[in-house]
Design goal:
- This protein is α/β, with parallel strands linked by helices.
- The chain has a single domain, classed as 3-Layer(aba) Sandwich (Rossmann fold).
- Helix content is 23%, strand content 22%.
- It contains 5 helices and 14 strands.
- The strands form 4 sheets. Strands 7-4-3-2-8-11-13-14 form an 8-stranded mixed β-sheet. Strands 1-12 form a two-stranded parallel ribbon. Strands 5-6 form a two-stranded antiparallel sheet.
- The N terminus and C terminus are likely disordered.
């Protein structure tokens, strides 16, 4: 199977399991220095996106399994007075609970850190959602871990003619960018993605590819 980048990568639904395994292995193989440099560069690109610096409420994720870590971005947002939230498992979907500098965290059933399910916000009221992913393509189709939590939580976006808010922005390493990913009916596409090498906007304000 080729390296997973925009020049050579493509996938259909049947190869998603293999794709997830290979990219996760590649993420985990990054050195600490490589990870830190890439995350800093991606964070700089994100901060130049107007929806981020204009946002009043920003949802992050708490990185696991080699994911690009938005922790530094969260610290910047808190310093700027933005409200920061993190996902909490709620049945088969997600809630987003408020984070502060001293919010206690615990591990959920998947071993992912999350805050207590208190002071939650309606996902429709979030301005920006920094979205974890395994891969994304040039139309904004996202491959997650396979649980479908983000797709279910933000399925309301697929009923809108224009993408007002929240804006889903993927944070990734450049090797996670593919040319084509087969999109399923339930997939909610990204509004944009940032990596250490680029900022990618998808389909203007539309929701369909």
């Amino acid at each position: 199977m080729p390296e997973h980048d925009a020049a050579s990568g493509s996938t259909g639904a049947g190869s998603r399991t293999v794709l997830r395994r290979r990219i996760r292995e590649r993420r985990r193989a990054l050195s600490g220095a490589q990870r830190q440099t890439a995350q800093q560069q991606a964070a700089c690109r994100l901060r130049r996106l107007s929806p981020f610096w204009r946002a009043r409420s920003v949802a992050i994720y708490l990185a696991v399994d080699g994911e690009a870590d938005p922790g530094a971005i969260a610290a910047v947002a808190l310093t700027r007075g933005q409200r920061v939230y993190a996902p909490v498992l709620h049945g088969e979907t997600l809630k987003f609970a408020r984070l502060t500098g001293d919010t206690p965290l615990h591990r959920n059933r998947f071993g992912i850190l999350e805050p207590p399910a208190a002071d939650c916000i309606d996902p429709r009221q979030l301005d920006v959602v920094l979205t974890p992913l395994v891969a994304f393509d040039e139309t904004g189709t996202r491959i997650g871990m396979g649980g479908g939590y983000y797709d279910r939580c933000f399925s309301f976006l697929k009923q809108r003619m224009r993408w007002i808010r929240p804006k889903l922005i993927g944070i990734a390493y450049e090797f996670q960018r593919l040319r084509t990913v087969s999109r399923s009916d339930w997939d909610v596409p990204l509004w944009a993605a940032v990596t250490e090498q680029g900022t990618y906007r998808f389909q203007s304000e539309g929701l369909t590819a």
